Amino acid sequence: MSSLVVLLSGGLDSYTAAAVLKAEGFDLYALSVGYGQRHVIELDAARAVAARLGVREHLELAVDLSKVGGSALTADIAVPKDRALDASIPVTYVPARNTVFLSLALAWAEALGVFDIGIGANALDYSGYPDCRPEYLRAFEAMANLATKAGVQGHRFHIHAPLLAMTKAEIIRRGLELGVDHGLTHSCYDPDPSGRPCGHCDSCVLRAKGFAEAGCADPATD
Questions:
Q1: By C-alpha distance, which of 87, 90, 89, 18 is closest to 58?
Q2: What is the DSSP letter of 183?
Q3: Quick count: other Cβ atoms within 10 Å of Cβ 124?
Q4: Domains in the chain, ordered, with CATH?
Q5: What mean pLDDT comes out for the span 184-202?
Q6: C-alpha to C-alpha distance for 111 and 47, rounded to whole angstroms
Q7: Phi/psi class of residue 36: alpha, beta or left (left: φ > 0; alpha: ψ in -120 to 50)?
């Protein structure tokens, strides 16, 4: 069985991507990152998801991107609510976040002797982030094979993004097929102090749209 390091945020997409990769035969190492995000409750969800998936190891790292700022998720900037989703990049974009996360995953993978990395990136029903596009993931994969000892010595790193071309409804349906417990996940960018989702940020809107189109109820909001 091949091993794979998967980025696990505790959200619907990362859980489903991990479940897909596990079903494909990968033995999972899960990596979650505390980056100074306002919705830090997602790390509790990541722990629950990792336990449910039965990962070999769940590593949590802290990289405080709130010191960098520039995002409504890490700085004192209002999270947009009920906005019209379009091609513009919203203020919830965290500068270079997926590059930072994938770099951490790459470092751990190389240390483990693992050459596959998974991410729940999606380029259809998403908020317009540039680091979720297929051309970005291809470029990171190429960089990984140039910038590592393992790559120079002939090993090939591969980035797996099984949800990249799926709608949110398709992701939800695939998760249900695999036994994903959506009730364990957290998506909201701006939850209240008790962790309840706001229902109005981009992530909440996309999640609600996905469940509606999938024709099923969201157990996390029941």
A1: 18
A2: G
A3: 13
A4: 3-214 (3.40.50.620)
A5: 94
A6: 22
A7: left
**pLDDT tens digits for 118-153?**
999 998 776 678 999 999 999 999 999 999 999 999
Helix (H) or strand (E) holding 106: helix 97-112
Q: Per-residue pLDDT tens for 40-69?
A: 999 999 999 999 999 999 999 999 999 999
Decide: helix, strand or coil at residue 150. helix
Q: Give one word for 26, left, alpha or beta, with left for phi > 0 and alpha for psi -120 to 50.
A: beta
Q: Are 93 and 52 in contact (CB under 8 A)?
A: no
Say what the pTM is.
0.95
The answer to whether the beta carbons of residues 179 and 19 sit under 8 Å apart is: yes
- Identity (one letter) of the amino acid at 203? S
DSSP 21-36: HHHTTPEEEEEEEE-S
